Amino acid sequence: MKQWDDKDLDRLLDRTLSEYTSEPRAGLEQRVLANLASAQTQRRRWWIWAAVPVLAVVLIAVLVWTTPRKPIEPPVAVNGPSAPNVTKSPPSQQPAVSVAAKIRKPMRKRVVESQVVAVAPKLPTFPSQSDDTQVRLALQFVQNNPALAQQVVKEDEEFQEAVARNVELQDRQNGSETQ
Amino acid sequence: MSSVAWQESLLEFERTAPSVTVEELVGQHARTVFRVAFSVVRNHADAEDVVQETFLRATRFGKLSSIENPRAWLVKIAWRLALDRKRHAPEEPLDDVVTTLHASDRPIDEALSEEQRLRLMRQLIASLPSDLRDVIVLSTVDEMSSAEIAQVLGIPEGSVRTRAMRARQMLKQKLAAWLEKKQ
């Protein structure tokens, strides 16, 4: 085998290193661009699929928000005897309650109020029953017992006259005493 | 330079920098990127995969116009991807190289076929320390200047030249030692 000198080795290195690189197959740029385009399309598809659940949630939220709900009628305070008196104990007598219980308390009160409204519905005419009970009872009595009513009225007139006479008599007596 | 002045200069750079499209980047640098990848992975299919991945990452970056030296930037990406991809191939047998050298009286570069020379050189380069190996491998890519190699490897330009010389020297020594051993 031949003894290789320094020049031989240099030449080998130069030649080999110059051949060390390689050229790509034809159409590299087109393949790269096609791959990039397909990757971009896939990325867009990914965004579309990711956007679907988000859009669905938004749509449901909008539907829930815009759907007309049955209006909740506020409880009406009833004037009259049927409304129970809710006696509140002074705050000092109330037992100590937790924060959660404090929050829940108004809810219970609201339930009670709605029950009251259900028991005593508002009357269609004004004034309400509480204001004309006496008059209506009197009219009913006159309608059902006219003779008795006339007698009651007559006795009442006689009673009024007697009272008036008595008052007049007393006034005269007082006047004579002063003279 | 204050941070405000620095931000203003960056904005000015972005305004004045020429807009670069992906098509232009691919057209101008795909082949260089391929050669760099091939110098590491030594395989056409793997090198092309590295090129595809390099440009994919480049497009994901978005602000292409703000890249000062697109070629060095792309080469750097490709270099790292290629190193990640490179598998430690088993040592190739060089028995036929020895036989050829024994049988021939011609100079060594003429005695060996191209394939034999490359196989021999791959083994010698693989046995170099990594800092020397990186420089010699990148310097085999014709388009890469010392400045660009320095940018890719993150070392001073002067170190590139020094390391290239040392690598070449070491390759020669290894080759001589190998030939002596085989005699």
Verbal overview:
- Chain A has helices at residues 6-18, 28-66, 99-119, 129-144, 146-178.
- With 179 residues, chain A is mostly helical.
- The mean pLDDT of chain A is 74.
- The longest helix of chain A has 39 residues, at 28-66.
- The termini of chain B are far apart.
- Chain B has helices at residues 3-16, 22-41, 44-61, 70-85, 95-103, 108-111, 114-126, 130-139, 146-153, 157-182.
- In chain B, α2 runs parallel beside α4, α3 (44-61) packs across α4 (70-85) and α8 crosses α10 (157-182).
- Chain B has 183 residues and is mainly alpha-helical.
- Helices cover 75% and strands 0% of the residues of chain B.
- The interface between A and B is large, with 30 and 45 residues.
Please estimate the helix content of chain B: over 70%
Instruction: Give the overall silhouette of chain A.
Output: rod-shaped
Q: What class, by secondary structure content of chain B?
A: mainly alpha
Elements of chain A, N to C (H/E): HHHHH
Poorly predicted sequence stretches spanning 5 or more consecutive residues of chain B = none
Relevant CATH superfamily of the largest domain in chain B: Winged helix-like DNA-binding domain superfamily/Winged helix DNA-binding domain
What is the typical, i.e. mean, pLDDT of chain A?
A: 74
Please tell me the overall pLDDT of chain B: 81
Q: Given the structure, what is the number of helices of chain B? A: 10
CATH topology of the largest domain in chain B: Arc Repressor Mutant, subunit A
Give the domain tally of chain B: 2
- Most extensive chain interface and residues per partner: A-B, 30 and 45 residues
- Count the beta strands of chain A: 0
Q: Which ranges of chain A are low-confidence, i.e. pLDDT below 50, for 5 or more consecutive residues?
A: none
Q: What is Rg of chain B?
A: 20 Å
Euclidean distance between termini CA atoms of chain B = 64 Å
Question: Which structural traits does this protein have?
Answer:
heterodimer, A: 179 residues, mainly alpha, 5 helices, 68% helix, B: 183 residues, Rna Polymerase Sigma Factor, Chain: A, Arc Repressor Mutant, subunit A, 75% helix, 0% strand, elongated
